[in-house]
């Protein structure tokens, strides 16, 4: 059985050390194809900007917080009706 460190090198992307770019580029393409990343390079892959993701997340959070008082009021109303 091989050592654990050799298994990790299979998962690591090839590193470019400034020499032999063509060989590195072929290895990098193979690595990216194996990880299903190459599709994003070949096609016009639309990437959502981080600011768009953050504003969307902030909107979701604000909606959740807006619902909390309504849920609290509803639970209080249910408790009052049960007590009657």
Structural summary, described in words:
Residues 61-84 are annotated as: Disordered. InterPro entries: DUF4219. This is DUF4219 domain-containing protein. The chain has 2 domains: 1-46, no CATH class; 48-84. The protein is 73% helix and 0% strand. It contains 4 helices and no strands. It has helices at 4-11, 21-34, 38-42, 50-83. The protein is rod-shaped and about 80 Å long. The termini are far apart. The mean pLDDT is 75.
- Main sheet? none
User: What's the quaternary structure here?
Assistant: single chain
Radius of gyration: 26 Å
End-to-end separation: 72 Å
Strand content: under 5%
Question: What form results from the Cα inertia axes?
Answer: rod-shaped
Protein name: DUF4219 domain-containing protein
Organism: Gossypium arboreum
Pfam families: DUF4219
């Amino acid at each position: 059985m091989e050592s654990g460190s050799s298994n990790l090198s299979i998962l690591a992307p090839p590193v470019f050390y400034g020499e032999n770019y063509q060989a590195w580029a072929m290895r990098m393409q193979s690595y990216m194809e194996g990880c299903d990343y190459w599709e994003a390079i070949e096609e016009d892959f639309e990437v959502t900007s981080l600011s768009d993701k953050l504003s969307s997340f902030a909107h979701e959070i604000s909606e959740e917080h807006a619902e909390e008082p309504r849920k609290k009021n509803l639970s209080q109303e249910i408790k009052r009706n049960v007590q009657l």
